[in-house]
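Support request, please re-run this one:
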Amino acid sequence: MVLALVLFLATYVGLLVFAKYRAYIALGSAAVFVVLGALGVLPAFDVFGAVDWNVIMMIAGTMGTVYFFIKSKMPALMADYIIEKMPNVKWVIIALSLFAGIVSAFVDNVATVLMVAPVALVVARKLDISPVPMIISIAISSNLQGAATLVGDTTSILLGKQANMNFADFFWYHGKPGLFFVVQIGAIVSALVLWVVFRNYNQKVRMDEKTVVSDYFPSVLLFGTILLLILASFIPQDQKPETTNGLICMGLMLIGLAREIIITRKPMEALRETLKEIDFFTLLLLTGLFIVIKGIEKAGVVDAIGKAFASISGGNLFLAYTLIVWASVLLSAFIDNIPYVATMLPVAAVIGSHLGVDPTVLYFGLLVGATLGGNLTPIGASANITGLGILRKEGHEVKNWDFMKISIPFTLAAVTSGYVLVWLFWGMGG
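Re-run finished. Output below.
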């Protein structure tokens, strides 16, 4: 167990220090675990099964479909309609943030930023103001809503896998409000925070022309993906393949690709452009992490961490819940929340087992803390890094404090409301 723990900690340090090489570090660590299989850490025949191929295919397929969606300019048109109704810059920022949140509930956070940020840049140019506040607000709002649905973020997909939750469970779970409603209340609270932060941004705004959309098929594909995922969620787990959701996402993406090939009559170019938009780095990172996590599970590390948490909490569920939420907030500010959540979900299950309780409140608390904690710093979430990268290309270097003076009050408000609501819904009497 000691060897597995040392390897795991070394992997995390590497992921933190060498961000550009995270996928290779995860795969390298996975390879070491495979080699250690001879010592009984992770038998070779368990390696393929350690990878959640349903998750991998869901992410890859959705990324491809989102590429067609972005290319159609539909997100920009949707945002135009919102901006048209806003009286000043303050409400434009809030509206774009809320719009980014709505999109992010069904689309990957990074993709959401890529969709909505160009609109913010256009508005900023027309008004001759800095786009920095708008882009930051869009990024942190997309992170918030990623926990609202099964398909909103990779961490939500991981939770769905761990807790055997379907799409509908995020709305209503075992007779109680699900994470969707917790997140929406958090969004309202954080919108009030943005209103205070940007209270002096009262410049008038006007959109001279709307984006023209001539191709609505990608929109049909994306909404079709969401609809089919919803419908599939009602099929009993024992009556459908484990990769059902992944096959849906990949299938509709391939339909979009086939259509693109027919329209352009350039099959290789269409294939190349689509593959460029799929983040293989993230997919490889996840693949490696799935294997690493299985390795530490086999070695007993996860069980040991769970026992430690249970011991510190002294058998008190509220204390264990509090530790998980706020530790997740702090750690996710500096560590990518995907490997963190992937690691801690099995730990939460073990804690629940040792305390003799349903681990749902711990799962939900973990997701609230980890999803929102990434908003505290510019490096805490991929959406933040993407947003700041867009600004950098536009000639805006954002200082840490410029980011954090918006993100800290936003995050604390959203986490606190989520912390209270999850406990009220799922912890009371647990």
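The mean pLDDT is 83. The beta strands are 172-173, 176-177.
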